[in-house]
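Title: Prediction job returns without error message
Component: structure pipeline
Severity: low
Priority: P3
Assignee: unassigned

Description:
Job completed but the reporter wants confirmation the result is attached to the right record. Sequence as submitted:
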Amino acid sequence: MPRLHNKRLQSGKTTPPEHSPKWEKLFAITKAMYTSATDWLLWLDCDAAFTNFDIDWRVHLRDHLDKSRVLVASRDISGINLGVFLVPNTPYSRFFVEMMSEERYDIERRQLSHKDQNALKNLLTKSPQLACSIDDSVPQGMINSYLDNPAGHQWMRNDWIAHQVFCESRDCPDRFLSFLRSVGPDP
């Protein structure tokens, strides 16, 4: 039976100084894939959180847990969103994540924003055959519901994960934490 990596990543900064900290995600996932015996890894950006702890992820995502895939994610109007996704811990997935990491040189040189998203787009442009190894058919409401952003499925009570994407105002962290307290378990 698949298991999620259930340890909190203790991250020392591994991103070279000439690169954006946004790359830490790919480095951390790669490290976990090499150092963990878990079957699946789930990534949540720091602006995403679980909002329904009653969901058994193995049941919830059973139609998408195919270890022949390199990435399991949802889409929004901009394409595949990498704020919340799963990767099976397989050699092929490790290779895929490492290939995405290698795109950082081009992304940084071109000074593109949305680093990881553009790395994925670059990789799929160079190697379009990889697209068939990605399951991006997960309904967004199942793993990546948005708060305060009309670009995708809006979070509803009982959704598994809430993601506060592209929030640029100074009060975003406070609003997000306030939201999480409001949906937290009842005392």
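Comment from assignee: result matches the submitted record. The first strand starts at residue 40 and ends at 44.
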